[in-house]
Structure formats: structure tokens, C-alpha cells
Amino acid sequence: MELSDLGYDHWFQQKREQLQRPDCDVARITRVDRDRYLVRNERNEVQAELTGRMSFGAESSQDLPCVGDWVLVQYHNDGAFAIVHELLPRRTYLRRKAAGRNVEYQMIASNIDTGLIVQSCGDRLNLRSVERYLVMVNEGHLEPVILLSKSDLVSAEDLEKRIAEIGLVQGGTRIIPISSVTPGGLAALERSFKKGRTYSLLGPSGVGKTTVLNRLLGEEVFETNPVRDKDGRGRHTTARRQLTILDNGALLVDTPGLRELGVIAVSESIQESFSEIRELSEACRFNDCTHTTEDGCAVLQAVERGEVSLQRYQSYIKLRKESEFHALSYLERRKKDRRFGRMIKAVKKQIRK
What we know:
CATH 2.40.50.140, 353 residues, Ribonucleotide Reductase Protein R1, domain 1, alpha/beta
């Protein structure tokens, strides 16, 4: 195996050279479990830990490695253990607002080429959930692909209806119906995978992500729970993030189901995910139109005419307000953190005197 088989290319090589650490080797983070890491190189996969400088010098969780990151390591114990010294810049990323009231980013994975957004045909199609995942994928500069899992549970007519509904949300995005129980149900997905490219399964709990991963691997590597009788949904099983190499050479990251998918400062990706509203806004009377109460707002006029659904418009406004609110809170918290850091440095300096 070569590093290129793990997704390493000239872009990452340039970033490595800029760090000027010839004493270190390149490896990729394949698993994170709290403060424990697995790293993989051309030869094998070993346990790793961070240097004290990385662990305690990180200003936020974004500065710590996540699944998919490329890092510079030094090996010990005849290559059986690694110390992570440097984190290479990320080309793409998946992140969200941390769950709960904490206004902070949570890294999900990095250096992903394609985000596979899984929605179950066994449930009522949640277009608002699809929109949120598309915003996250677009923010991180990934290619979005939507997987309609459990397609065997609906008729061909209903399946076409769901595909058409998603097309109205994000025209041009590839939509692949899949089934883990019917012959050839994953064939179209497998044909789309390319050696050395990294894919990530995304979606809420119970849509069948882990089952899909097991079918792609050809064996029950990861635990799944049975479907619930009351609603036909699987229960959440994945509690960690892990990068796996498939038989065809593609790399796949399974992620936990996300109960909350908050956004922070993602105005550009919201505009990209709601491209029809962005295009309409160019005809608004005011350049700084908020699309809420202004006269001459082309977006509001399109909603009144039924060209943009009220539900989609409301989702756009909600996401935008949420993004702006959390962005202000995040910036204010960062300012406080920096002020506190400067105070600590000043106190230490005074003590040394």
C-alpha cells in the first residue's frame, strides 16, 4: 500500500514540507475515541497519542486531530506506537455546533471528498434535515450525494416522488436509492466509489448507516441494533468515528447519528444550499434586503406566487438567523478567552520577576 491509497497527494505533500519536520513520518488518523487515536501509514495501523504541546496548547477542539486528518508522527517500540507532533492543514472538513448550549465547533471528520447524506425511505422524508446536512457538506467543501436507504420499503412510484422532492431542495445533487436486503441494492453506490477517495456516511440515528457499511465490507464488522416495532426504525449504534478501507480501495468514514445539527457562521454555504433564493435576491430592491419585511423583495414575491415553498423559505430564514446568532456568541466567547489568556500570561510574567 502507498500513502496515495489512503488519499495522500501533492497538496498534502506541500503542506508537509512547509512544516519542516524531516524527523517525522506521515500518517492518517483512522479512529478517535476521546483522547485515544489510531493512525495508519503504508504498512500498518497503530495506537497513538498527542504530545503535551498539542494536547494542552490547543485553543479549541478544532486544533486537535479528528478522523481523516493527516498528521506527522514519530514511531516508538519498533513501530508499535506513535506520538503525534503536528497536524497538517485540512483540505475539507465536516463540523457542526457542539450539542447543547455550548457555542463551539465540534469536528466530525476531515479531508473527505464526498459526503453521503443518508435518509431512510422507511420514514417520512424530512426535507428540512436534508437541507441542514447539505449546508454542513457545502460549508466543508465536500461533494454532496444523497442516499435513500431502505428503498425496498416503498413502491417505485413513492421512490420517484421522494427523489423529485429532494431535487427541488438541491437540484443537480446525485441521489442514489439503496437497499441492504435486496440483491444489487448497493451496486450503484459501489460503482460510484473510487480508489483512494474518502467518503463519509452522514445522517440521523436509525437510517441504516452502519448496516450499509457492513454490507459494503461484506461482513458484520460493526454492531447494529434491530428495528423497533413501533416505528420501523433502527436504534443508534455508532458511538465513534472510524475510517475503513473497502475492498475496492475507497475509504469510508462512519459517523454517529447527529441528534442536533446546529450551525455557526455558515452564511455562504446557506446561500449555496438555497441557490434559488440567492438568485432571486439579485432582483431585490435593496442590496441589504433581509427577505423578511422589505417592499420590493423578490424572494417574498416568489413565495407569494408559490415559486418557492413557504416551508423552504422558513427553513432558509431559520438557518440564517441561527447561524448569525451563534456566530456572534462564538466571537464574543473567543474574545473573552483571548483576554483571559493574556491575563494569565501577564500574571506568570509578573511571578517570574
